[in-house]
Design a protein that fits this description.
By secondary structure, the protein is mainly alpha-helical. Helix content is 78%, strand content 0%. It has a single domain, classed as Growth Hormone, Chain: A. The longest helix has 40 residues.
Length: 454
């Protein structure tokens, strides 16, 4: 086997790979809050029912969840950079369309006839949400297993801040620049962020070697000298099949459906809940929603570190108990104070659990991290699309009490997830010992007389 050509230089380091992926995800994930704050205005103009409002706010989550599956698996063949740019490019197209609609039609020309168009453009804009599973694979390949909990927690936690920040800023910008101006600002942000990712996003060493024409065996050997521990199994289909045949993928999907799908659903549904159930002003509703979203995101950073210490299964069990408590509080609440407290409790439980789930993905499915990330991130995030319409349907059937009773959905999902977490804990897979650092590896090679040691 010939050596890797010396003129091939690896660009980046784990910290740079983490920064680039986090930036790309932050940009794309903001679309979770796309319609949450503006739903009331759109509802009044085109006469949407509570169920239709649920579908409206959830529409970006549909593409943002289902596209995670193929795009995450694509990471296993080309790295994360190309999938990131494709998804962000489609999201730009959707935002450009929405901005044009708002400039040309809002408010007088926005009639019910344009409802399918708005839903479709929301679908396109939500493609950026799918960058989550792309970045998960990208970060996982950069970092050793012993550091993945903290790295993935930081990646997802910081990226998850975007919906909360936009839930707070969008009402303010709406009051300042109007609907069209607010969407134009969002479009500019998306374009600038995508350009920044183009220059800053970096693939792990293995993918850089492969992009330079190095065969798989040589690329793996060379990437190991840079500290890379995990390598893809092969093609997209193979990655998806391997992860699908690993039974532990599916409990992780269900748990993530509850906590991350629930997080996405609440980020889009809470503005409606605050305004319609508790008569909270629009700006205050945005602030309360931002508090929930940002706290859940920050707890994801903390959750990754907790999972590194306690293990993913124990962390999930503790977090689900907290989530169940918050859900029950929302069911019985009829006041702003209790609901705000309950939302904070939910943010803590869901945020920590979300980090712990992805601590387990590379541990339980090491041969197909991209495929597993796609199934877990995609089908799990599908809760962001399915739950808001269900919450809307409960309101449509029960009236005002339905806003509180809808949280029984989270109680049921939490109990199911708790049972699955116990199953995972009882069938725990021990993590392999951490690989030597590049410097230590070189020292070991030198001591053993390895020809590549220097």
């Amino acid at each position: 086997m010939s050596a890797v050509p010396k003129d091939i230089k690896i660009i980046g380091a784990p910290s740079q790979g983490l920064f680039g992926a986090t930036l790309g995800f932050f940009i794309g994930f903001a679309a979770v809050a796309l319609f949450g704050t503006t739903a009331a205005k759109v509802k009044d103009l085109i006469g949407l029912s509570p169920l239709a409002v649920g579908f409206l706010v959830a529409m970006p989550s549909l593409s943002g969840s289902l596209l995670r599956i193929p795009f995450a698996a694509w990471v296993d063949t080309v790295g994360g950079r190309k999938p990131f740019l494709v998804l962000l490019g489609i999201s730009i197209a959707g935002m450009a369309g929405l901005t044009s609609v708002m400039f040309l039609l809002y408010p007088g020309g926005l009639t019910p006839a344009y409802t399918p168009l708005i839903f479709f453009l929301g679908l396109l804009s939500g493609c950026g949400i799918a960058t989550f599973s792309v970045g998960t694979g990208q970060v996982s390949y950069w970092f050793p297993k012993s550091r993945q909990g903290g790295a993935l927690g930081t990646y997802a936690g910081v990226g998850n801040l975007a919906p909360g920040i936009f839930s707070f800023l969008l009402p303010l910008v709406l009051g300042w620049l109007g609907m069209a101006g607010a969407y134009l600002v969002w479009l500019i942000f998306l374009v600038i962020g995508t350009v920044l990712y183009y220059f800053l996003g970096r693939n792990a060493p293995y993918f850089q070697f492969r992009a330079n024409g190095i065969n798989r065996e040589q690329a793996v050997a060379a990437a190991k000298t840079y500290g890379q521990e995990m390598f893809p199994s092969g093609m997209i289909k193979e990655s998806l099949l391997i992860s699908a045949r690993t039974w532990k993928t599916w409990p992780l999907v269900a748990i993530y459906f509850t906590t991350f799908g629930g997080f996405m659903a609440l980020t889009s549904w809470l503005p409606t809940y605050w305004k319609s159930f508790l008569a909270v002003p629009v700006v205050t509703a945005g602030l309360f929603t931002a508090l929930y979203s940002i706290l859940a995101s920050l707890m994801r950073v903390v959750g990754g570190k907790i999972a590194d210490r306690l293990g993913g299964e124990r962390t999930i069990l503790l977090a689900l108990v907290v989530t169940l408590i918050g859900s029950l509080m929302m069911v019985i609440s009829a006041s702003v104070g209790l609901s705000l407290t309950a939302v904070i409790v939910l943010a803590v439980g869901m945020g920590v659990s979300n980090a712990a789930v992805f601590k387990l993905v590379p541990q339980e499915v090491p041969r197909a991290v991209g495929g597993a990330s796609g199934w877990v991130g995609g089908l799990g995030a599908f809760g962001g699309f399915t739950l808001p319409p269900l919450l809307g349907a409960i309101v449509a059937g029960q009236g005002q009490p339905g806003y509180a009773n809808g949280f029984l959905l989270f109680v049921l999902l939490g109990l199911l997830s708790f049972g699955l977490a116990i199953l995972l804990a009882r069938t725990h897979t021990a993590e392999p010992k951490p690989m030597s650092t590049p410097q230590k590896l070189m020292e070991e090679q030198h001591a053993a007389g390895h020809p590549n040691a220097s």
